Amino acid sequence: MRASRIDHEHVGIHNVTRSPVFTDAHAKIGLAKVKAVAAFLREAGVEDVAVDSDAVHESALWNSREAGSTDVLISAANEFNVRYHRDGISADPALWPPQAETDRRS
C-alpha cells in the first residue's frame, strides 16, 4: 500500500483536539501536518508514504499522478473556501444569489 499526504498547513493547537495523530509537541513547533501524518502512518506499518507540503491544487504529487492510480481519496480540506462550495452553490448565505419570490398560498 502506498499512502500520499498533501497539505500545506502546519499543526496548530486547535488540531490537537481534532485528531489523535497530532500532539501538543507538534503544535508547539508548528510541525507540517504532512510530516506528522507520515510518521504516524509509518509507525502503523505503512512503509511507502509520499508527502507534499503544497496545497492540493498546486501539488506536483497530485497533478502528476497516473490516471487511475488513486484508490481512495479522503478530502479533509478547509482552505481556499473548498468546504463552502458544491456544484457552484455556496453554503455561505451571504454569497447566495437572490432567489425569486415564491408563491406561498395554501
Characterize the overall form: globular
What is Rg?
A: 19 Å
Discrete helix count = 4
Order of helices and strands: EHHHEHEE
Give the gist of this structure.
It contains four helices and four strands. The protein is α+β, with helices and mostly antiparallel strands. The strands form two sheets. It has a two-stranded parallel sheet with strand order 1-2. A two-stranded antiparallel sheet has the order 3-4.
Task: Describe the secondary-structure layout.
Layout: E1 2-6, H1 13-16, H2 24-29, H3 33-43, E2 48-52, H4 60-63, E3 85-86, E4 89-90
Parallel strand pairs: 1-2
Antiparallel strand pairs: 3-4
If you had to describe this structure to a student in words, what would you say it looks like?
The protein has 106 residues and is α+β, with helices and mostly antiparallel strands. It has helices at residues 13-16, 24-29, 33-43, 60-63, and strands at 2-6, 48-52, 85-86, 89-90. The strands form 2 sheets. A two-stranded parallel ribbon has the order 1-2. Mean pLDDT is 78; it is low at 100-106.
List keywords for this structure.
single chain; 106 residues; alpha+beta; 4 helices; 24% helix; disordered C terminus
